[in-house]
Amino acid sequence: MRKILLLIALAFYAISCQNSNTFETINVKDYSVDIPTNLSKTENLNKEASLQYQNLLKELYIIVIDESKKQVEKAIKDNGLDQMYSNDFKGYVELMSTNFNNLIGVKNKTQKDTLINSLETKIVKFEAKLEEYDIFYEIAYVNGIENYYQIMTWTLLSKKEDHEEAMDKMIYSFKINNSKKYIKSAKKG
């Protein structure tokens, strides 16, 4: 009986390890992201997010928040923030980063400007203390065609080494669906 239980436990372990390296493409609204197949859809991480997935056992999370550029620009202007933040992608990133820094204590922060599927992107990695938990975050701010996107992944700091590669893969997989069509129409206009 013990051998059977051991074999079943080993089979479940092998399946869970395999799933952490297997990704699936999730399409939402006008974009897609590849996520590990062992993450489950949820709706309780952030009410503003259009995509929310988690694995509570492995402590790995991802959300995507998409915001209309026109609405962001209007909000910046209407709230008098245009004196502090430029009304463009750079200003959006600064505003979002400032808001995040004010909410939680950020430390060991690194930033990188890059392109993800031809889209201007700033990737920020940092550690923070949230309640009694030490958390590792990786956030990508993406300058889309009509929207700005925040792709936010996080895990416990103690699991950073286990999950950082998967977090990178999720972020770098971000694509705007039909982006070539939008880019062509923007060049004509």
Count every beta strand, where a strand is a DSSP E run of 2 or more residues.
10
Tell me the helix content. 25-40%
Described by the principal axes of the CA atoms, the overall outline is globular
Give the helices and strands as they follow along the chain. HEEEEEHHEEEEHEH
Mean pLDDT comes to 86
Distance between the termini: 71 Å
Radius of gyration: 19 Å
Count of discrete alpha- or pi-helical segments spanning 4 or more residues: 5
Strand order, main sheet: write it out.
3-4-5-9-8-7-6
Strand content: 35-45%
How would you describe the overall organization of this protein?
Strand 4 and strand 5 (60-68) form a beta hairpin. It is globular, with a radius of gyration of 19 Å. The strands form 2 sheets. A 7-stranded antiparallel beta sheet has the order 3-4-5-9-8-7-6, sandwiched between helices. A 3-stranded antiparallel beta sheet has the order 1-2-10. Helix content is 35%, strand content 40%. The chain is built from 5 helices and 10 strands. Residues 9-19 and 181-189 have low confidence and may be disordered. The protein has helices at 2-20, 69-78, 89-103, 160-172, 179-188, and strands at 23-28, 31-36, 40-41, 51-55, 60-68, 105-116, 119-130, 133-143, 147-156, 175-176. It starts with a helix and ends with a helix. By secondary structure, it is of the alpha+beta class.
